[in-house]
Amino acid sequence: MKRRAIYPGSFDPITNGHIDIIQRSLKVFDEVVVVVAMNLRKSSQKSSWFSLEERCALIREVFKDERRVKVDFCDGLIMDYARKHKVHAVLRGLRAASDFESEFMMAAINRELNEGVETVFMMTGKNLFFVSSTVLKEVAAFGGSIKPYVPAAVWRSVKEKLKREDLRG
Length: 169
Ligand code: ADP
Description:
Radius of gyration: 16 Å
CATH superfamily: HUPs
Number of helices: 7
Strand order of the largest sheet: 3-2-1-4-5
Order of helices and strands: EHEHHEHEHEHH
CATH class: Alpha Beta
Oligomer: single chain
Low-confidence stretches: none
Mean pLDDT: 93
Number of domains: 1
Bound molecules: adenosine-5'-diphosphate
CATH architecture: 3-Layer(aba) Sandwich
Distance between the termini: 47 Å
Shape: globular
Largest sheet: 5 strands, parallel
Strand content: 15-25%
C-alpha cells in the first residue's frame, strides 16, 4: 500500500521552508499531497496575497518534475478531507517553540475529529527556522528582497504583485 500524507497549510505563498519539509518527507512517504487550505478567519483572508488558485499554481510549478508531489485545495475541515481521500497521515512542520503550542492544539483537536489520522511533525530545515510566509510578505511589502527564501517562480509573482498593488499593512 502506498504511504500517502497530506501537507495542509496556507502556502501564501510557498517558501523554501515548506519545500524543504516536502522534499524530506518524500524519504518517509511515497506520495505527498500539498493541500492549500482556505483561511476561515476573515482577518487572514484579508491579508492573503495570492488566491487559492494562484497558490496551487505556484506549488505545481515548483514541483512540476516531481510526480510524487500532488497539489489540491480544501475549503472545509482537513480531517474531513483526510477521511474522504483515505489519508492516514497529516504532515506539519515545526520551526520553534512558538509553533509548538498551536500545532500541539491542532493535532489534539484533529485526533478528536478523526482518530484514524496521525499528525507527523518534521523539524525545520537548516537555516530556515525564521522563514514564514507572513514574515516574508512583510519584508517584501517594505521593499526587502526575499529572493533567497522562495523559489524563482514565487519571487517573480511577488515582484509582479508589488508592482500592481500596495500591499503594506
Ligand atoms: P506559514 O504562513 O507560517 O508559513 P503555513 O500555513 O503556510 O504557514 O504552513 C504550513 C505548515 O508548514 C505549518 O505546519 C508550518 O509550521 C510549516 N512551516 C512553514 N514554514 C516552515 C519552515 N520554515 N520550517 C518548517 N516548517 C514550516
